[in-house]
């Protein structure tokens, strides 16, 4: 089973290939991904590395956490599971619905349905 590692505070010059070569010293790297800004195409300054074993991942974390890369002290630790933020453009069923507010609706006063 592979282990995913978060790598933060990366210099903007770091690419997927350079990230892979740095982590390959500690074992087999399954994948690397430097997160890029959708609009500008520039690095967001963090990425993820997936290593094939937990032991290799822990060795990489121990060796690389706090290391200086191009004048920046990088953060290396186990990646946390992604939080579910819901789908964009929609609200949770209980948020911002007129049916959940007693003062909004037809016949309760006013042109817009609210009370005056």
From TrEMBL:
SUPFAM superfamilies given in the database record: RNA-binding domain, RBD
Gene3D superfamilies: 3.30.70.330
Residue spans of biased composition, Gly residues class: 106-116
Protein name, entry field: RNA recognition motif domain-containing protein
Domain RRM positions: 3-81
Entry keyword RNA-binding: yes
Keyword field: RNA-binding
Pfam family, one: RRM_1
Protein species of origin: Hydrogenophaga atypica
Region named Disordered: 80-116
